C-alpha cells in the first residue's frame, strides 16, 4: 500500500488490517478480478478502496473509477472513506438522487477521477450524455446482494456494459446469492473468490443477541425500557414500513426519548440532517427502514433493536451489523409478536441460536430489569401518568343525542344527564303530555316524519334520513313561524307543511305528489295517473328531486322517509 495512504489512515487511527483487507489487497493490487465476502462491519470499503485509489493515474482522463452502491447514505459514506485519495490529488464525486443536478454535473465536468453513485442517477446521467464511462479502468460493485434485492441489477448491467472490457472489476457483498454469483461470472474475468469468515451466517462474537415475544401495543414501552440501559450508546431501531417509522418516533417522544427517522419518503436533505443529528449525539435513537441496514457506519452504536421481526437470517445479519463494528461490543434485541415467533425460530435455527424457547416479556417484567440492569423507575413514571393509551375514534366533545319526537325537543349532553337524574317523575310528566295530543298526531304520524320543533332564537341542524339519500337541513325562523301559525289555526303541523309544499310545487308548474293533492276529482285522478306513469318511466327521479328540494329547505314531507333522527354535531 502506498505510504501516503498509510499515513492518512494512521491519522484516522487505522493501523491494523482486517481479515478481508489482508486477503483482498495483494490480489486486487495485482489487477486480478476479486469477489469478496465478509461480515458487515469488517472493513470491506477499504478492501477495495485502497486498491482502487492506488491503481488510478491522477494525470489520466476522467473518470477512471466507478463505484456502484445501492443507497444514498452508503454512497455518501463510501465517498467519505475514499477522501484519503486526496493525498495523491484524486477528486471524488457522489452521484445520487433526491438532490439537484447542478453540483454533481459541475464536479463531473471539473475532472473527478472517481465516481461513487447509485444505479438510478448514474444511468440517468449516462442516458443524458453527461456521464462518460469509456475511460473507466476500475469498477466496483459494493453490496451487490442488496442491489439484487432492490431490483437494481438490470440498471447495473447497463452501466457495466458501458465500461471498457479490459477494466479491473471487484465485487463485494456480505451474502452471496446465486444471482450475484452469476453476475460475477458473466462480467468478470476469472475472478478470485475471497471469504474472510469460516461460516456463511456467522455474526460478530461480541454481539449479545436476545429474542423476546412481545405484545404489539406494548412494544413502544418495552423499547423505551431497554433504552434505559446504563452506559448505552446510540441505538438503531429497524421497522418494516415508513409509516411505522414516523409513528414510533412520535411514541418515543411521548415517553421522553429523542428519536429521528430515516426512510425513503423523506427528502434527501432531511435524511442527511437526521443522520447527522444521530452521529452528533443530538438524537439517541435512529428509527429506520431497510434503507439504513446496509453499509452505514456510525460510531458508538451499542444497541440494535429489530422492532419488526426480520424476514430471514440474511436481513437479520445486515441489521445487527450496525453494532459491534470494528471489534466493539454490542447488543441486538429482536421483538416477535405471537404470529412472528415461528419466523424468529427459523432465524435462530439458521444461526445456531435456538438453544432455548423465546421468552415472553412485558414492559413491567422484572426479567428486563435483571437482564439489562435497568433502573427501577420507568420512562412513563418520569413523564407522569401520561401513557400511550389508545385514542378514541370519536371526535373530542361529540355527544350522541337521543331523539324525543313526540315532545318535539332534543336533549344536549347536560340536559340528558339532568333528565336521567330526574328519574320516574320526569318520565311520568312526559307520558301525560304525550297522551294529550295522541288523537291529533295519530292520523299524521305515518305520513309526517318531520324533524322536531326548535326554538325561534337558535337554528338547529338536523339530519334527515330518506330511502334515497341523506340530507342535512336547517329549520330556520320561517319554518318555525309556519308551524306556529298552523297550530293557532287548529291544524296539525304536518297538514300545514303539506299544503305549503303543494302550493309551491303548483306555482313551479311541476304538480304535486298523490298524497299532497287536494280533493279528488275525475280530472285530478286522470292527471295523477298520467303523472304517475311519467314518474315510473323516469325511475322515480321526479319524486326524489321534489323530496330533496323540500328537505334542503327544511320544509315539506319526505315521501319515502322511514324515520327522522336528530343529531346535534359539534
Structural class: alpha/beta
Summed up, the helix count is 23
How would you characterize the largest beta sheet? 7 strands, parallel
Low-confidence stretches: 385-425, 442-494, 506-526, 539-552
- Strand proportion, as a percent range, falls in 5-15%
Percent helix among the residues? 40-55%
Could you say which overall geometry the principal axes of the C-alpha atoms support?
Answer: globular
What is the topology, as strand order, of the major beta sheet?
3-4-2-5-6-1-7
Number of strands: 18
Through-space gap between termini: 75 Å
**Assembly form of the protein:** single chain
Mean pLDDT: 75
Instruction: Please compute the radius of gyration using only Cα atoms.
Output: 38 Å
List keywords for this structure.
570 residues; alpha/beta
